[in-house]
Amino acid sequence: MKIFSSLYNLVLSWAKSRFSLYYLCALSFVESFVLPYPPPDLLLAPMALKNPNQAYRFAFFCTISSVLGGIFGYLIGSFFIDLAMNFFTEMNYLGKLNLVKSWFDEYGILIIAIAGFSPIPYKIFTITAGIVAMAFLPFVLMSIFARGARFFLVAFFVKKFGNSCDVWLQKYIDRLGYGLILIIIIGVWYAK
Fold this sequence. Notes:
mainly alpha
């Protein structure tokens, strides 16, 4: 069954849409404070692949939208703490929230750089930054730096290796997808 190939081709078709920049901005904004939600890289990469001359422009809009969404997440944590706590409780993320709070205590502003750049869900950190009343300006500046570094790096690699990456993905995307599912299942089983 070629589920991941079909999904990959679907995302490539979205990337060709005349509304793709709007989709990217909306996805980047919402992904910064809503759980679960796919990362914007999944749309940024095919958009850059289909339009390599616009890759850095796409990364710029992705970064700005993501940081604005992060600010919205921060405000949710700051002003709607009860709503945020109910959300974390319903999603069974209270344990993760407490772990993230301890990371804020230990690493300070660097945790935003790590969350903004890595595959760790940035949204948990944006809301938690508001809950723990992290200084707003450093939060925004570190978010711009981390999210920008991530999205511009994606744009750079896709622009540099785009066609060969596309050929490789077309060939191996299903194996990678099923392998990732297997790794997640093993990780969940091991975490218990």
